Amino acid sequence: MRYLLTLAALASVSFWPGAVRANDTMAHFAAGELVFTQTDAVSMVSEDLFLSMNEVRVTYRFRNLTSQDVKGLVAFPMPEVGRTMSDADYPDGPEANPMRFSVSVDGQPSAVQFEAKAVLNGRDVTKTLRDLDIPIPPYSERVDSALKKLDRQAIDRLEREGLLETGDEMFPNWALAGAYHWQQTFPAGRDTIIQHRYKPSVGATVLSLDSMVRAKTAEEMYLVGENSCMDGDFIKGAKKWAARQLKSGGGSQRILDYILVTGANWAGPIGTFTLTVDKGHPDNLVSFCGEGVRKIAPTQFQMVKKNFTPKQNISVLILDTGF
């Protein structure tokens, strides 16, 4: 029997005083798209997830529950990355590996391929860009050069399809998406340890510190961590943080998201799920949704769950001092 598999990754969580992108799931390619499905052949014995602004690391222990090898394609869908008018940490890797993604299987490096695509509101627009010889990463400097070479007819086409806004300058509306993938065998009746790491794309928004000091709610502070479980204690801490930053310098809010719910697609729940969030600096504040979170280091917070079935993704809000 042949199985097609997928390893997905993306993520985010919230906890103060200390707040954090995707998860492994089975999949198959249908009509050129990566489609997730469930499997009862392989279980996830454990997942150890480390989230920070500089790196995401994940270690999985998978167990083949059958008496025959399970073979197929393992894929890691990258999060969509669009061009933004605000400051952001764009993927800094080459176009062939924008997230600097790497994989090891049972301690040995595994060759990975990356299939990039351009999307707009869930629609694959890669062919349109390739037809016009426009690079797929919208944040690439080569995009601006390519757009300037287009004739009026091509620009009208991009505007008509919603891919481009024009005015004082041309602004691309599409996002870079895609998937890393490799062939994987899960030996019969054995455990397989898969480790991967990558550099996340973490948005940053400059904060109005004086407004934060006067504000009473997250909305008045213009904090955008909607799913990061900000509570009253975090709001109080954010006001104090803003007051300190007014004296010492600026600050920004950073959002790190991670898709976790695909972890529910393996056979049974995750045996042991360990989440570690690193806020980056002792003076940073962090907020993410979690139960039983404990501080394990000056900048790190950890949650451990047994027989865990993820019901929601992780979204981590970090108030960053910039140090």
From TrEMBL:
Signal peptide stretch: 1-22
Keyword set includes Signal: yes
Keyword field contains Signal: yes
Matches recorded under Pfam families: DUF4424
Keywords: Signal
Domain DUF4424: 22-317
The protein's name in its UniProt record: DUF4424 domain-containing protein
